[in-house]
Design brief:
The chain is α+β, with helices and mostly antiparallel strands and 452 residues long. 39% of the residues lie in helices and 26% in strands. It has eleven helices and 14 strands. Strands 4, 5, 6, 8 and 14 form a five-stranded antiparallel β-sheet that branches. It is rod-shaped. Keywords: Membrane, Transmembrane, Transmembrane helix.
């Protein structure tokens, strides 16, 4: 007919049944007590209210965490699987919001028959999701802002399940075996979807960036002693996923060689290979000089599949040039966009190291260089909440003899007194799908002169 936790609650039930308000609870003629007397009641108000508060607080905190984790993926992920993972987390958070309301009924009057089952579902969701977060965190064990939250929620979920099992909540479930099977399958589905969206899919899609560099037909300057040599550089995304360009460069060299008639060129092949140049039979010594250098597109440019970018330049060399060969190289470092998202406004801004107004980018002892830095987030937000923030750092430096760059994706924020961890850089390059591409082409100066 009803349930009561205290004498006042019992009197309320009896009033609803038509009994007088002044009924004597000790009158054995109208009331029969079984197993215990009227002086023993199961309710401990402070204990029940504390347990209710803890149960609801854990469910609400878990709801907030799952919503925070799932929203960026649901609204901004590039792939369908990653968006499904985000929506799955948001849906799980909504279920936990309902479970928090059900906990208020379950720990109170239990007017809703299945309130305990709803709370059980919420606790199981918390246990599964916090286990995934903890497992991901244990891979690298980095201190993060979210770590105390999912560690606390993992412990809370164990306590909540223990309390619910002690209360035999499954007795109210019509088909407990089917319920347990459904929860287990949901957990397996969530784990599989996470593995697919975070590991398999960003690896299986092909990623190709094709580079081209070629010389055009030269022309003489009618008034000045120059030869104008056209150059065409092209970068094309021939893969299936969009790509960021983290850093790039083009270089044009002029090579001068000393020739030998006694075939001494191959005798010094060891030094040639160590120096990274060719060992040639009739060339005893060769040197190169940089004629032109620069950036192709610059950090923060991106290419969608099938999209290309062309840059045309004109190289000016004197008519009395002493070079034997002209060599052009194009190098690009690209990152898969289905692995991460970069703050392009930050990355595209160049910070000259020689200007004091640049703050922490100023470096009096460093060689002159341009510094680019931008925050990068993984496209699976579970990775972001279990790791420290990651940054793309690009250093572009040069002088009259040499031009080059360095790059890194790591937790390192630029500081001239520190260096990033080499092992971490290698791991992050693999995680975000960073690849380097380069191409080169050569042309004989004699052939260019003959075509004028």
């Amino acid at each position: 007919m009803g349930s009561a936790w205290s004498p006042s609650g019992l009197r309320k039930v009896l009033r609803e049944l038509g009994c007088p308000e002044s009924i004597d609870l000790e009158d054995r003629r109208v009331i029969v007590w079984r197993e215990a007397g009227s002086e023993i009641w199961p309710d401990r108000a402070w204990r029940r209210r504390t347990a209710t508060a803890l149960m609801m607080a854990g469910l609400i905190l878990s709801m907030v965490l799952l919503t925070v984790v799932g929203t960026p993926d649901a609204m901004g992920a590039l792939t369908f699987a990653q968006r499904m993972t985000g929506f799955l987390f948001i849906l799980s958070g909504a279920v936990q919001g309902l479970a928090a309301l059900a906990a208020l009924d379950y720990e109170g009057k239990r007017q809703f028959k299945y309130s305990g089952a709803v709370v059980l579902v919420g606790a199981l969701i918390a246990l599964i999701t916090e286990s995934i977060l903890l497992f991901t965190w244990l891979q690298e064990r980095e201190p993060t802002f979210y770590f105390p939250a999912y560690l606390l929620l993992f412990a809370w979920s164990l306590w909540a399940l223990w309390r619910l099992i002690q209360g035999h909540v499954w007795r109210a479930i019509p088909h407990p075996k089917r319920f347990a099977t459904g929860v287990a399958l949901s957990g397996i589905l969530a784990s599989t979807n996470f593995a697919y969206s975070a590991v398999y899919q960003p690896t299986s899609a092909p990623f190709y960036v094709t580079l081209t560099a070629k010389f055009g037909t030269p022309h003489t300057d009618p008034t000045r002693p120059f030869i104008h040599v056209p150059m065409t550089f092209q970068v094309e995304n021939t893969g299936k996923v969009p790509a960021y360009i983290l850093v790039d460069k083009y270089l044009v060299y002029g090579r001068s060689a000393e020739y030998s008639n006694d075939d001494e060129g191959l005798r010094d092949w060891k030094n040639a290979l160590e120096g990274g140049y060719d060992a040639e039979l009739h060339v005893t010594e060769s040197g190169s000089k940089t004629i032109s250098a620069g950036q192709f597109a610059g950090p923060g440019y991106w290419l969608h599949p099938g999209e290309g970018h062309v840059k045309e330049k004109v190289i000016q060399i004197p008519r009395s040039v002493e070079y034997d060969l002209l060599e052009a190289t194009l190098a690009v470092v690209a990152m898969r966009m289905d692995r991460g998202k970069i703050d392009l406004l930050q990355l595209q801004r160049a910070h000259p190291s020689w200007q004091k107004k640049e703050g922490r980018f100023y470096c009096a002892k460093c060689s002159d260089m341009l510094i680019h830095e931008g925050k990068v987030r993984h496209n699976n937000n579970i990775i972001n909440v279990t790791r420290r923030p990651r940054y793309v750092t690009v250093l572009w430096y040069g002088n009259q003899e040499k031009f080059g760059y360095e790059y890194a994706i790591s937790s390192y924020k630029f500081n001239p007194r520190k260096r990033p961890d080499v092992g971490e850089i290698a791991r992050e390059e693999d995680r975000y799908g960073v690849e380097s591409r380069s191409t080169s082409t050569k042309v004989s100066v004699a052939a260019l002169m003959a075509s004028l």
